[in-house]
Prior knowledge:
Helix content: 25-40%
Low-confidence stretches: 380-394, 397-408
Order of helices and strands: HHHHHHHEEEHEHHEHHEEEEEEH
Radius of gyration: 32 Å
Strand order of the largest sheet: 3-2-1-4-5-6-9-10-11
CATH superfamily of the largest domain: Ribonuclease H-like superfamily/Ribonuclease H
Distance between the termini: 72 Å
CATH class of the largest domain: Alpha Beta
Number of strands: 11
Largest sheet: 9 strands, mixed
Number of helices: 13
Amino acid sequence: MVQLVRAGVGVRTVARRFSVSTSTVTFWVERARGQRLDRVDWQGRRPGRAWNRLNTGQERRIVRLRQRLRHSALGEFGAGAIRAQLQRSSKPVPCERTIHRVLQRHGVLDGARRQRRAAPPKGWYLPAVARGAAELDCFDFIEALKIAAGPLVDVLTAKSLHGQLVDAWVLEHASAQAAVDCLLRRWRRDGLPAYAQFDNDTIFQGAHQFADTVGRVSRLCLALGVTPVFVPPLEHGMQNGIEGFNALWQAKVWQRYRVADVDELRRRSARYIAAHRARHAAHGIAQRRLVPPRFRLNLQAPLRGCLLYIRRTDEHGAVNLLGHHWLVSIAWAHRLVRCEVDFDRHRIRCFGLRRAAPVQQPLLATFVYERVDKPFQGVTASAKQAAVAHAFRSAGGAAPRTPRKSHG
Length: 408
């Protein structure tokens, strides 16, 4: 043992090889410190048994009792069953943990330990993001926060995966148009990422009841050359970054202060966001493109670029995407897939995803997708009010007064 430790082998490795404790290895290493091995007094005092350790007879009895219970009619021979049997004949009785250690020390346990794998890298489902060659901005809503003497508000939050750039916008009326305005403000200030990640909320994705629907937020991303990524919120790990920031914002802003109105909440939030950005400025900012200076969103423009959807297949290996049912692979049932909707090449490609092997993402299926460029149906409340007012004026009447509310 001492020779192996002196050769550079770890104490724990030596202890496992000789089936002794690490304290035993350490004792003999200290006994031989500074001496040649042939001159060490190996006949000196050896480490004794712990005062509270079971004696050899008790340990052997536990092992024999396990073998007998294993072939009993009930078939229960774990530490709990052994302790229950010992309580009938002897006192005091060791606890279940002590019995388990006795069984482990004698090597009679036949259960396999759980194999724990290392967590995949951040953004593992997007190869460029996982390599650190592309940036990903995550967006999410904190819904229905009630100000004591004020209205219900929603908070749109944002966080970049690598650069730690965070944002939070307090909105009295959450809508797709408000989300577009917030995204444009962020990207004009910080630059454009390669990907923008959202959940399946209708504000981000668009209406779910119509097939081939591409919402306002997706059209903004595609017009700017940013690839939208829609991930299911219940999948572990994909929304951890933005969900963690949501909890942090609520703890440090919403629950920390008692605000009187929306304006005060916005001031508190802006102060915290500025402090958070200053704190994490050392992380650096990944390469981001600038927004064109004269950019204006045209919602009726033809779609260009790619949309990404992370989906889990059903028992038949199929996914529901854009209002259609696509059979990916019967051999990939109940597994994750990345569906790339390419509007330029009119196709959908599905790649298999596995957390245990994040680098291996095989192409499972390719579908032809000919989407008809139907006009965008969503209009803002202001445009709708203007149209109604124009119709009333043309008819010679007064324009009706409607509440100011934005519909995405």
